[in-house]
Amino acid sequence: MAEVTITPLTELADWIDTTTIAEAILEELEEQGVPVTLENCQKVWLDVLQNGLPDALCSSVKALLPIL
Question: Residue 33 region, left (φ>0) first, then alpha (ψ -120 to 50), else beta?
């Protein structure tokens, strides 16, 4: 039997709930009156990944520094 290796990447990827992210995107599109299409959802998520996520990650990591 092959050995299974769990890495921090694997653990984090398993922990992230993509359904929650998808639901948040759908809800926001609906609230803003934007048609809920796969294309619009993809555009929103890619924009978040490119423009919002890097700053949010940096800010959150910096917030951890005093704790560590």
Answer: left
- pTM over the 0.85 mark: no
Instruction: Give the CA distances from residue 48 to residues 34, 64, 68, in Å, rounded to whole numbers and listed in that order.
Output: 16, 22, 28
User: ∠42-11-9 over CA atoms, to 5°?
Assistant: 70
pLDDT in tens, 6-45: 799 999 999 999 999 999 999 999 999 999 999 999 999 9
DSSP, collapsed to helix, strand or coil, labels residue 63 as helix
Q: What is the per-residue DSSP string for 5-57?
A: ---HHHHHHHHS-HHHHHHHHHHHHHHHT----HHHHHHHHHHIIIIIHHHHH
